[in-house]
Amino acid sequence: MSRTQLELHIDFTRCDGRGLCTELLPELLARDDWGYPVGRGGRDVPVPSGIAGAADDAVAMCPVQALLLRRVTRS
Question: What Pfam families does the annotation carry (predicted)?
Answer without folding.
Answer: Fer4_15
